[in-house]
From TrEMBL:
<dbReference type="InterPro" id="IPR034904">
    <property type="entry name" value="FSCA_dom_sf"/>
</dbReference>
<dbReference type="GO" id="GO:0051536">
    <property type="term" value="F:iron-sulfur cluster binding"/>
</dbReference>
<feature type="domain" description="Scaffold protein Nfu/NifU N-terminal">
    <location>
        <begin position="91"/>
        <end position="185"/>
    </location>
</feature>
<protein>
    <submittedName>
        <fullName>NifU-related protein</fullName>
    </submittedName>
</protein>
<dbReference type="Pfam" id="PF01106">
    <property type="entry name" value="NifU"/>
</dbReference>
<feature type="region of interest" description="Disordered">
    <location>
        <begin position="58"/>
        <end position="80"/>
    </location>
</feature>
<dbReference type="InterPro" id="IPR001075">
    <property type="entry name" value="NIF_FeS_clus_asmbl_NifU_C"/>
</dbReference>
<dbReference type="GO" id="GO:0005506">
    <property type="term" value="F:iron ion binding"/>
</dbReference>
<dbReference type="InterPro" id="IPR036498">
    <property type="entry name" value="Nfu/NifU_N_sf"/>
</dbReference>
<dbReference type="Pfam" id="PF08712">
    <property type="entry name" value="Nfu_N"/>
</dbReference>
<dbReference type="GO" id="GO:0005739">
    <property type="term" value="C:mitochondrion"/>
</dbReference>
<dbReference type="InterPro" id="IPR014824">
    <property type="entry name" value="Nfu/NifU_N"/>
</dbReference>
<comment type="similarity">
    <text>Belongs to the NifU family.</text>
</comment>
<dbReference type="GO" id="GO:0016226">
    <property type="term" value="P:iron-sulfur cluster assembly"/>
</dbReference>
Length: 322
């Protein structure tokens, strides 16, 4: 305002001088008031024009200052929304009693909603592409050198390696494959119906829960299933495995099969005898014991291992005698 006062006074003085020289001197008070009003109006008009020019200059300067900032923002690359989502994926690992098995928790559901069975286990690369539950992720995991089996629980993945393999080489690859599958949103387990009779996959078994209620079960079998479901299964799932009920025979023995990390664990026999057998015999008097059911391949591998141990003992005995 101080800068605008000096031009305003000069304009006012010029207006008075021009009116005095070009027109007759006003002697009437009315004429003098009209002249003063005209001079004041011209003064206000000039002040507005001056302030308007100042504001235009300041606005043009601010516009010039903001243009480089806008250009710099426009040059920055836009980040894809999925980039932030990828960083939020957190995969947790938990050790198991089996040193050759590791449990991975991807903070993401593994088995699809409404899946009948509580687990899926892949023991060979062929099983990962066979009906009724092929899994692209399991196929990739089985291709890692040293991985022998992949087990899916409801919200965890258990990977079992060979005894001579090293987790330092296997774990990073497992992390990368699980992260890639979860980030891409691909189905970890694909549910496909078995083909017609005579076609490949016609003999594939449907996914069922062996501990599920069956109206044909007698009272003792119903109690055994309920105890296994409520007391035994949660503890085994914490260790990266599961349990499968294979029947109750006439001798009073409960036939069970361990899955996942517990399948190849050295302490599986201790788990069956001290844990499961003791609890079943304590609550159900009809139970006389527990037996572990092995598949044909597992029986062959155990026989070969027993032969290998016998040869080692014999070689040690010969070496000591010599």
């Amino acid at each position: 305002m101080a800068a605008a006062s000096t031009p305003s006074r000069s304009v006012f003085a010029r207006a008075l001088l021009r009116s005095a020289t070009s027109r007759p001197v006003a002697t009437c008070p009315m004429q003098m008031r009209r002249g003063l009003r005209a001079a004041a109006a011209s003064q206000a008009c000039s002040a507005r024009s001056f302030s308007g020019s100042v504001s235009m200059v300041s606005s043009s300067r601010s516009l010039n200052n903001t243009r480089p900032q806008a250009q710099a923002l426009a040059r920055q690359p836009r980040r894809h929304p999925s980039a932030a989502a990828r960083r939020t994926i957190f995969i947790q690992t938990e050790p198991t009693p089996n040193g050759d098995a590791l449990k991975f928790l991807p903070n993401h559901r593994v088995l699809p909603e409404g899946f009948a069975a509580p687990f899926v286990e892949y023991l060979s690369p062929r099983a990962t592409i066979s009906l009724p539950h092929p899994s692209p992720l399991a196929a990739k995991l089985m291709n890692i050198d040293g991985v022998t089996s992949v087990f899916y629980g409801a919200d965890f993945i258990t990977v079992t390696k060979a005894g001579d393999a090293n987790w330092a080489h296997i774990r990073p690859e497992v992390f990368a494959l699980i992260t890639e599958a979860v980030t891409a949103g691909e189905a970890i387990v694909t549910v496909k119906e078995a083909g017609p009779a005579g076609s490949e996959g016609a003999a594939a078994e449907e996914a069922v829960d062996s501990l599920a209620y069956n109206e044909d079960d007698d009272e003792v079998v119903g109690m055994i299933k309920e105890l296994l479901e409520t007391r035994i299964r949660p503890a085994i799932q914490e260790d990266g495995g599961d349990i499968e009920f294979r029947g109750f025979d006439e001798e009073g023995f409960v036939n069970l099969k361990l899955r996942g990390a517990c399948r190849t664990c050295d302490s599986s026999t201790v788990t069956l005898k001290n844990g499961i057998e003791g609890m079943l015999m304590h609550y159900i008097e009809e139970v006389k014991g527990v037996r572990q059911i092995l598949d044909e391949e597992e029986q062959i591998s155990m026989q070969e291992f027993a032969k290998f141990e016998e040869k080692l003992k014999q070689s040690k005995g010969v070496a000591q005698s010599a």
